[in-house]
Amino acid sequence: MSRTSPSPWLLPVAARTWREGLHMLLNFPLALTASLFAVAGFAISGLLLITLVGVPLLAFVLLALRGYGALERMRARLLLRSEVAEPEPLRPRPGGAGPLAWVGAMLRSSVSWRAAGYALVHAPWALFTFCTVLTLWTAGWAAVTYPVWYWWLSEPVGVNLDGRGGGWHWDGPPEFVLAVVAGVLCLYAAGLLIRGMGHVDRLLVAGLLGPSAAGERVIQLESDRSAVVDTSAADLRRIERDLHDGAQARLVSLAMDLGMAKEKLATDPQAAARMVDEAHGEVKLALAELRDLARGIHPAILTDRGLGPALSAVASRCTVPVAVEVELPVRPAQAIEGIAYFTASELLQNVSKHSGATRARLEAWRTAEDRLLLQVWDDGRGGADAAAGSGLAGLAERLAAVDGLLAIVSPPGGPTTVTAELPWRDR
Questions:
Q1: Are 395 and 234 in contact (CB under 8 A)?
Q2: Among 65, 86, 88, 89, which Cα is nearest to 76's?
Q3: What is the pLDDT of residues 307-320, one digit of tens each?
């Protein structure tokens, strides 16, 4: 079921208007408390900087303001429906420990100072939003409900024009209608202003209390590093398993066969010769397995001849006919070549195993923005989706670890186009 936008006629009583209006009303008491605390804390800690108390006190003030920033992010999430990511945590210097390291990290953290800036900047804005919403809501709802509470007044609301009780009074049906209309217009104006002020509050919270650009980059790099470490560990486990179950087991069997042939050499030379011949065949199979394993680690053709011939070799092993077109006037860095090669290898394996295609196309080129694009197209059944937990998800993580990107277009029924974008790095 698709979500529909609320009717503009219901703007004054919409849930969003109530939520954001409540946010504006809470702005002032919270911002006033935080700004007074910040001003007093900075003033006192500044006066005490000549003593040993000033610096720890300043760090404590910044810690409290970071807590206020966390409260504001939670309030924005609940009332403004604004999801602001948590900023980067405190990072003491490497090898630092204890209270002094914590104080130093607090004073160096841009998150702490941005939270302090928010507490000071937000206070005048909070006063404006509080007064605006309180005035418009009070006037609007008082006017809309005037026909109800008018009867409890000792005398009607009006204007005394001559000083002797004459004038215009709001005590009849025409005046009631006029009051209700004025109140509705006031509430509409309040709703529009609340929406606009809500956008400003979202910008303030996101800009001053969210992660900085450098902090987001650090978090992204940490995530990418974890993905690279996990991928490397998985590759090492795969190599170990392939060696243990393949070439190592075959070599152990070969050693036993040669030992038995040696024992029979004196008593039954013909049987020994047959066993040596069988061992020779086992040696060839073991060498073939080791070559396949080495090619899976880093193929020699990629090192010797570059990405174009290596992609052609990968395409030749695909069970589906693949047209290859590579336009790379120079070679990228070895790491980028390796990632592009294994990306193409895995994508073509998916074409062979899962696509049901009759033909495919593999293209690679360098863009004007210095990016390496690798594209695999097939006319198969489609339906490929990285979110389904397939190998495409792991491939996307591996590309993201080097600032790459994986884009998949695969509608049911096909065709499928997978584009891998990598940064171009010269050798």
A1: no
A2: 86
A3: 888 888 888 888 88
